[in-house]
Amino acid sequence: MDYLVIFSARINLKNIAEGDSMVDFSAQYRLIGARIAYFRKLKRYTQEELAFRASISTSYLSRIERGIYSKGVPISTLMQISKALDIDIKLLFEEKI
Question: Higher confidence at residue 41 or residue 8?
Answer without folding.
Answer: 41
